[in-house]
Amino acid sequence: MKMELVNLNKTFRDAVAVRDVSLEVGHGELAAFLGPSGCGKTTTLLNIAGVYKPTSGDILFDGVRVNELQPKERDIGMVFQSYALYPHMSAYENIVFSLVLKKRPKDEMQREAKRVADMLGIGHLLDRSPAQLSGGQQQRVALARALIKRPKLLLFDEPLSNLDARLRMSMREEIKRLQVELGITSVYVTHDQVEAMSMADKVAVMQDGNLLAYVPPGELHERPRTIFIAQFIGSPSMNILDAEFVMKGGKPTAILAGGKVELEVPKERVPKLSGEKRAVKLGIRPESVFLEPQATADAYSAVTFVESMGRENLVVCDVDGQRIQFLSAPGESVHLGDHVGMKFDMASVQFFDPESGLSLLWS
Fold it and tell me: Which segments constitute the ABC transporter domain (predicted)?
């Protein structure tokens, strides 16, 4: 199934929850809606599901407008954060519940339950109640319940939020494997960038009800279109620094606020500006800043914070009142109060408009 949103808007009284969202999820693709709490991603999902009716705009399934259809008429399966399993029913009874409502024959229900249970490796758990299952097992039962209907569209609302880190990783792999094998078009809502970036064919980033970008995961990281995206994607987050872009001696140069740090900008990273001098926001990821001997360093400063991250440390410095964080390589010893030199990989630098927050490199 191809799913399209066309100028989708949803308001609750005077509050705008979703504003003019348009995108297309191709047949067999998985699209992730990513953003902080309250950004409109779950509201968008519930409009697709038919739980909410759009204030304006259209939802199309294979080109057919479905705005007026009830959830049960939309041929969808849904997996929730809370699992939403009936506690008084066995895993088997939860899985086949939709088929019971449709009064399907008993042998068909048993056959279909075995099919989805085998896919998810839970055939030995069908007689257990939800209380007897672990969080990961409950989530597999919830997924089996969604799959047994053979839906054309799968909707996921923060399905892994209640699982520990190890289980989240294994369930990410499981969900993506099944989605690809079955070729089911899927929409996946999450606040976790790792889930979105590792699972999705395209990621829709939302903020305050607005769709900021809908692009492949790699593009979000390498070509962020706004400061919000640049800082939301990647961990540790991108350094955003006040700077001035000038032509100095015929060379494009970024001068950090304070005037002590001058950085030559590669031709392919020159921002789209009118005039030869302008205030900008310079963005550079922590992994693009390196320790460097003072004589050849771009900047030199005292270390204000060090945090161990296992094999490497997160190092924070104050450069003319601006916070710069970077990762020290294994074996590099850095301590609080040390003075260190830093080198910036300008081949990966980003520039943004300080007022709008929009990229000056990528339209």
Answer: 3-233
| Alpha-carbon 116 to chain mean position | 28
Q: How far apart are CA 267 and CA 361, in angstroms?
A: 12
Q: Which helix (H) or strand (E) holds 139?
A: helix 135-147
Residue carrying the six token digits 């590099």: 332
Per-residue tokens: 312: 């490497």
Alpha-carbon distance of 226 to 329, in angstroms, equals 29
User: Rounded CA gap, 341 and 343, in Å?
Assistant: 7
The token duo for 116 is 């989805």
- Is the full-model pTM beyond 0.85? yes
Residue 119 and residue 152 in contact, taking contact as beta carbons nearer than 8 Å: no
Together in a domain, 47 and 116: yes
pLDDT for residue 274: 67
Q: If the chain, 363 residues long, is cut into consecutive pieces of 10 residues, what is the mean pLDDT of each piece?
A: 98 95 98 96 98 98 97 94 90 95 93 93 95 92 94 95 87 92 96 96 98 96 96 95 94 94 95 82 97 96 93 94 93 91 97 96 84
Do 166 and 157 form a contact (C-beta atoms < 8 A)?
A: no
Whether the CB-CB separation of 338 and 303 falls below 8 Å is answered with yes
Whether 314 is in a domain gets the answer: yes
Range of the domain at 225: 3-232
- Give ∠ CA 104-139-40 in degrees, rounded to 5: 100
- 243 with 228, same domain: the answer is no
Q: Is residue 254 located within the same domain as residue 199?
A: no
One-letter amino acid for residue 242 of the chain = D
Number of structural domains found in the chain: 2
